[in-house]
Structure formats: C-alpha cells, structure tokens
Amino acid sequence: MTDIRVLSTTEGSFDEAGAARFAELLANEQRVEPTDWMPEGYRKTLIRQISQHAHSEIIGMQPEGNWITRAPSLKRKAILMAKVQDEAGHGLYLYSAAQTLGVDRETMFDQLITGAAKYSSIFNYPTPTWADMGSIGWLVDGAAICNQVPLCRASYGPYGRAMVRICKEESFHQRQGFEILLHLMRGTDAQKAMAQESVNRWYAPALMMFGPPDDDSPNSRQSMEWNIKRFSNDELRQRFVDMLVPQAEILGITLPDPHIKWNEERGHFDFGELDWSEFHDVLAGNGPANSIRVARRRQAHEDGAWVREAARAYADSRTEERVAS
Amino acid sequence: MTTPGDSGGRETWPMWEVFVRSSRGLSHVHSGSLHASDETMAVRNARDLYTRRAEGVSIWVVRASDITASDPDARGAFFESPQGKEYRHATYYTESDSVPHL
Asked: B15–A169: do the CB atoms touch at under 8 Å?
C-alpha cells in the first residue's frame, strides 16, 4: 500500500492556538478550510472518507456502463450516458476535495487499482438485467442521496461544497431509475417479473449502504463529534425505508422483506434484520464482482498511461519553445 | 504567501482552477479544479466537468501554481486594518436614521 504523502506544512505539529480555533469553528457550526490547523485524525478520516467516496463514483460507472450499448431505446441510451458521465464528474469533484487535504491524485489512483483502498461494496454486485438500471437509480442512488444530503453540511468546506454539487445532480439519477421500473411495471408479465426480480436482489444491499448498525460502527461517534457525519447509520437507514415503502406501492413492487410493517408507536416502518455477514464478506473482497471491477479500472488506467504522458510531453515541449523564442 | 492546490509538480498533469460565468452581466466565479496537460485541454475539461447542465457562458482556467494567496497564518494582522473602522459603513451614521431618502 502506498503511503499517503501529506504535503501540508501543518502535519504532525500541534498548534495550541490552531486547536482552539478548530474547536471554536466546530462549536459555532462553521466550516474548516484547507489552510486551517486540524487534528491529524480529522485529516486522515476525511482523506479516507472522501477518497473512498471518489473511488465509489469511479467504480460505479462500470455496472451501468455495462448497459449503455444495450439500452432499449435511444432515449434510454442518452440518459444512461449522461448518468455515467455524471458519476465520472462526481469522482473528479471528490478527488479535488481530497487533494486539498494534502494527498495527491496519483496516490489515490494507485490505492484504487492496487486494491489498497475501499469503495462502496454496492458496486460489487453484477447487473445482469436491464431492470437493474432501474433498481440502481431508485434504490442505490436513493440511498446515496439519503447519505449525501447531510454531508452537504459536513464541517470540511471543500467536501461540503463538492457534495452540494453532487446532490443537485443526483436527484435526476434516482428519478430516471424509478421511471425505468415504472415503465417495466406497466408492461408485460415478463417485464414486471424482471423488475420485481431485480428489486429483490438490490433491496438489502442498498439498505446496507448506510453501513453497519450503530452498535457496530466504532468510528461513527468521532465523525459526529467532528461534524462530518450528522446522523447515525440506523437513523439514515430508517429514513430511507420510510421513503421507500410508499414509493414501492406506487410502483406496484413488493419489497423483499416480510417484516416491513407500519409501527404506529414509533411513527416509522419496522423492517427485518439484514444479513451483515454478507456485507462484511463483500467488503472484504469476496463479492460477485470485486476482482473484475478493480481489474477493469487498472487496465483502463494502464492503457491510458501513454496518452497522459504524451499530452504532458507535448505541453512541456510547447513551454520550452515559448521560453526559447 | 502561499499557493493553494500546488502539489509540487508530482502529478503527470498540473492542476488548474476553473472560473465560470453563469450568464452575461455576472462575474466569473470559482467552480472547482481539475487536471489537464495544457490550457486548451483545461478549458475543454472544464466545460465537460463544470457546465454539463448549461451552467455557464464563459470559462476561465488558471494554473493552480500561478495563484498567489495571502498567508493564512497571518490573516489576523493582515486583515486588521478595517477593525474598529465602522465609520466606513453607512450604518454608523445613526443620527440621520429618521431622515428620508438619506
């Protein structure tokens, strides 16, 4: 694993006035900016979280890119291309945000293609049917939005600003996915069955995107104290289920959980336990598509190396010409 | 003085800062940054990255390493001058509060 090269001059040094200022910023709900002193733990947590988030966007292009050539109409193809292009953009916004913390992009790319860095385990599930484009939009992007809207208020300025941009673009993703499923559910019996089968596969993994239950999420408390995380994993998961149930009714789709039931007392829907052994297994690299996702990214990166180097050589030669003349 | 976003030339492509004018009559505003080998590619990449939904009518790019910024550690002293000079604001002159059109 490549070590993160921290460029900031404030690294490692403890600055009493800086620490007081940092505490004051958090207490007043203000933003921390790249040039402010920050605890090393805060910096490292953010580098890890933002770069993992960026990797997820980049890897997230693959399950959907898989369907661009086979989208059922020109309209759906154009929409899917726009969506995949957005994921690339989101990855780039986030890599830039991470760079303000002192990690360079080549290091992050390295960590992704060597498998040293993690990304959201949801992208290690395959997309065998067209309905999966609907499920990813409705369930996966839906869960992502639930997670990301509170991150717009994350205490680290560049991260919050990147998230504002991302959230604006993300709502189209969820709506287009819902519409794919809606159209399938208005179609033939085979189309309805395809939609239902797809939702059956994506429902639980989407719920797991919020991370392990609160009592098994050791880093959550610190992230909440730093105003990076605003709501607990279980709170966000509950919020998501409460939104999904009425949406599933409109679709006429059954959520694959017999325990979903309105709880009058709590004012929320109850739902069943998730299989966390599966979550940890996929996260550990044993998901259906882990190796193919990273291998494809590595190949694209390595195959593109000559283009990056040639463009750089051309730019350098032009600079030399200008200096010489 | 410091240079924000300069990673010391270790990347294959340098970093650029992007400024987008959203419509005529408004200033170019900082949108974010990107990597590109030269200024032509930077402008094209900026279009693809920051104006996918018609957010702009004009783009500026500038090499991050060409930006000079005020020293963040000296901001107290550097921005001290306006402190206590409330008389530079119209709101300082309260005796005219009740006078119309003033």
From this structure: no
CB pairs under 8 A between A and B: 58
Q: Average pLDDT of each block of 10 consecutive residues along chain A (325 residues)?
A: 39 75 94 93 96 96 94 96 96 95 93 92 94 98 96 96 93 95 98 98 96 88 92 96 98 97 97 92 84 94 95 91 81
- Token duo for residue A218: 């050791």
Do B37 and A314 make contact, defined as CB atoms within 8 angstroms?
yes
Read off the pTM: 0.89
d(C-alpha A176, C-alpha A28), whole Å: 39
Q: What was the pLDDT predicted at B83? A: 83
Q: How far is CA A57 from CA A62, A122, A202, in A?
A: 10, 11, 18
Partner-chain residue, chosen from A105, A162, A318, that has the shortest CB–CB distance to B11: A105
pLDDT score of A6: 39
Kindly list the residues from chain B whose CB atom is less than 8 angstroms away from the CB atom of residue A82. 52
Out of B34, B38, B73, closest to residue A92 by CB: B34
Please give the residue of chain A at the shortest CA–CA distance from B14. Answer: A312
Opening angle at CA A84, ends A83 and A89, nearest 5:
95
Question: If 0-12 CB within 10 Å is exposed, 13-18 middle and 19+ buried, where does residue A126 land?
Answer: middle
Strand, helix or coil for residue B16: strand
